[in-house]
Design a protein that fits this description.
This protein is of the alpha/beta class. It folds into 2 domains: 9-25 and 100-235, 3-Layer(aba) Sandwich (Rossmann fold), CATH 3.40.50; 29-97. It has helices at residues 29-42, 57-67, 74-90, 92-98, 105-113, 128-137, 158-173, 189-197, 212-217, 230-235, and strands at residues 13-17, 24-25, 100-101, 118-122, 182-186, 201-205, 222-224. The structure holds magnesium ion.
Length: 247
């Protein structure tokens, strides 16, 4: 008999999903929105967007401002983050049309939701506002408790986001969540490193630009070519021939 996670808090698993190139792809809409909003805040056209993969939005905004010779003050960074959220709000239809949910993502969320010990949320470099727009636009919110997650405007450092999410989950679920109870699913070495540094488990999905080797080198304990394979990994027999519990 499976113990009730409410009376066995050590059984709780907090699964934190990266969003871009793990659950969805905007297929260039995100970059286009940056092109649109950057001049309205800075008075300059966007000529270079800082590297985006696996980084937090605050990091991207900071470096993009510097690349344009603009001092990244708190005020300018906040203004760009707000304009970005407004840009996404204005582009919801375009996002829904041009972007897509990655294969297996919807089924993987639903499959994990059948496990009573699993609580799912996001750990993303996106700001809270943009993350919510993306999740809502693609109808992925049913099994995600977004109040447990951590976002790119919570902290610049991704590893710190894992601790923030764990603290939120501890408060919200009323049970202390140990780092070993956290699983990060993402597509970049930064996702894997953040998990490893925070003492969490990392599953790498090679639906972004990084290979299984890249993700393993950064600390992934498992890698998969797509989320189509996640339920199979979860239900795969262990060495003892029994199904894995929510891993
Ligand atoms: Mg990603």
């Amino acid at each position: 008999m499976v113990p009730d996670p409410r009376t066995h808090p050590e059984r709780i698993r907090l699964v934190l999903w990266d969003i871009d190139h793990t659950l969805i792809e905007t297929r260039g809409v995100g970059r286009d929105i940056y092109q649109r909003i950057f001049p309205t805040v800075t008075g300059q056209p966007l000529h270079t967007l800082a590297a985006v993969h696996g980084r937090t939005e605050l990091d991207i905004i900071h470096d993009t401002l510097q690349l344009h010779g603009i001092t990244p003050t708190d005020e300018t960074m906040r203004a760009l983050a707000t304009a970005l959220a407004d840009g996404y709000t204005a582009a919801i239809d375009e996002l829904a049309t041009r972007g897509r949910v990655l294969p297996g993502a919807r089924a993987a969320l639903a499959d994990l939701a059948t496990e009573p010990s699993v609580h799912q949320s996001v750990l993303t470099g996106n700001t809270t506002a943009v993350a919510k727009i993306k999740i809502k636009t693609f109808g992925l919110g049913e099994h995600l408790d977004l109040l447990l997650g951590a976002y790119g405007d919570d902290h610049q450092d991704r590893a710190t986001l894992v601790t923030i999410a764990r603290t939120r989950a501890t408060n919200r679920l009323g049970a202390t969540i140990d780092p070993t109870q956290v699983v990060i699913i993402g597509d970049t070495p930064n996702d894997m490193r953040a998990a490893t540094m925070a003492g969490a488990r990392a599953i790498g999905i090679t639906t972004g630009r990084y290979s299984a080797g890249d993700l393993r080198a950064a600390g992934a304990t498992s890698t998969l070519p797509s989320l189509v394979d996640l339920p199979r990994l979860r239900h795969a027999p262990t060495d003892r021939g029994t199904p894995r519990q929510s891993r």
